[in-house]
UniProtKB/TrEMBL annotation:
GO terms for molecular function: aminopeptidase activity. It holds the Pfam family HTH_47. It comes from the Bacteria. It comes from Cohnella abietis. Residues 344-421 form the UCP01524 winged helix-turn-helix domain. This is Aminopeptidase.
Length: 436
């Protein structure tokens, strides 16, 4: 299903506004419910303003013999993003001023855009420049750039708590695989999994936004509420390629999001790298800005800018792997299950060790134990020993070299017997949503 979905989405011309975004959200909406909200051109979001809406029907460059040299229909990366409408004949000299290439990647069509300065341009493989030998060329760009809307997509699952886990991905790039579609595909599958999971502790919010300005727009509307509710979150991007994982910490670096992600990666046995937050990258720049300081990290594979095909036509289906996508989905699910299981407990029996056998928590008979029996005894005794109101289950699991979620059931069992008391914030059943 993943690659079928990829094949439907890949040809769509997405930008920060326009019908391509809406069409993509409708397709993803066949898998999970995604609400689309429109914000008009001119809407202010802090230091930024929603631009005009851009849509394209076609664009090409023909030589003097009428041969098509560049065609938007063959690859939507050929047209510079937000190119204004244009029709006419231009000289070779003028055309060259509007042709954009990557000399370092001569076989690639570069991804270029001009959102806030009206212009037009075509992107082409650098090694094709010798083909442009005529004196005059026909240029045709059938586009609209006019007042319209920016579209934000959002999904929400109500848990038993008003506290939220936030997942955010962007949906604003044209035909690229790792740097565009891997994020929405993985996030949608996580969303689909959680829709069918019962008894969620946290509520979950899923954002599908134009990168940078989309997150700024959302924060301008709901940032203060997110500050009160989000306990952990992740920007889902660049998750479809590479043998290892990369985790980018939140700006605060010591949040529950960071702790849980690094714990799960360590226990997974998969190769991984942890990098500190920096002001380059994706929407974690906005979520972690000083006005919000949300606990938002980013769990990736090969991250943006770290592979040569980045922001070019070479970032295509050949680079993305369904196996890697599925592995990433499972890593996120393990991360979420760890967050769901995590609690902070306080041991109620502080004068020596409690007698466990009389509570049925320890075997009456001594002798050789199976590995599983030894493991469960270890869980119980360590939970009693280290549940001091400060260590949570992840902390204790780190001491044992186990996944935090494995301690959840033993902890609940001890709680049932009155030996542990949860210190987590009370949960709420009130229905709510930031977007009404």
């Amino acid at each position: 299903m993943l690659m079928d979905l990829f094949d439907r989405l890949f040809p769509i011309n997405r930008s920060i506004t326009g019908d391509g975004v809406r069409q993509s959200l409708r397709i993803l909406g066949e898998i999970v419910p995604i609400k689309q909200t429109e914000y008009a051109t001119g809407t202010e979001c802090f230091d930024w303003t929603v631009p005009k809406e851009w849509n394209v029907r076609g664009a090409y460059v023909k030589d003097s013999q009428g041969r098509t040299l560049i065609d938007f229909k063959e690859n939507n990366l050929h047209l510079m993003g937000y190119s204004v409408p244009f029709r006419g004949y231009v000289s070779r000299e003028e055309l060259m001023e509007h042709l954009l290439t990557r000399p370092d990647l001569p076989n690639a069509i570069p991804y270029m855009m001009s959102y806030y300065k009206e212009s037009w341009g075509f992107c082409v493989e650098h090694n094709r420049l010798p083909e442009f030998t005529d004196e005059w060329y026909e240029v045709f760009i059938d586009s609209d750039l006019q007042d319209g809307h920016m579209t934000l997509g959002e999904g929400f699952i109500q848990g038993s708590s008003k506290q939220e886990i936030l997942l955010s991905t962007y949906i604003c790039h044209p035909s690229m695989a790792i740097n565009e579609l891997s994020g929405p595909l993985v996030q949608t599958m996580i969303y689909h999994y959680l829709l069918h999971r019962k008894n969620l502790k946290y509520s979950y919010r899923f954002l599908y936004l134009p990168e940078t300005i989309g997150s700024l727009l959302y924060l301008s509307q709901y940032g203060e509420q997110l500050k009160q509710r989000v306990v952990a979150g992740y920007v889902v991007t660049c998750v479809g390629h590479g043998e290892s994982f990369t985790y980018k910490r939140s700006k605060r670096a010591d949040t529950l999001a960071d702790k849980a992600a690094i714990h799960v990666l360590k226990q997974s046995g998969k190769p991984y790298t942890v990098v500190d937050w920096n002001p380059f990258g994706s929407d974690e720049r906005q979520y972690c800005s000083e006005g919000f300081k949300l606990p938002m990290g980013s769990l990736m594979r090969t991250m943006y800018g770290q592979y040569p095909e980045y922001h070019t036509s070479l970032d295509n289906r050949s680079l993305i792997s369904e196996e890697v996508l599925l592995e990433t989905i499972q890593m996120y699910i393990d991360l979420i299950e760890t967050l769901e299981a995590n609690e902070t407990y306080e041991c109620t029996h502080i004068h020596g060790e409690p007698k466990l056998d009389k509570r049925g928590l320890y075997p009456y008979l001594g002798g050789t134990r199976t590995k599983e029996e030894q493991r469960q005894i270890s869980f119980i005794t360590n939970l009693i020993a280290f549940s001091d109101g400060h260590n949570d289950l992840i902390d204790i699991a780190e001491k044992l070299g186990e996944m935090g979620k494995e301690l959840n059931k033993p902890a609940q069992l001890l709680e049932q017997h009155g030996l542990l008391r949860s210190l987590n914030v009370e949960r709420y059943n009130t229905q709510y949503d930031l977007v009404n």
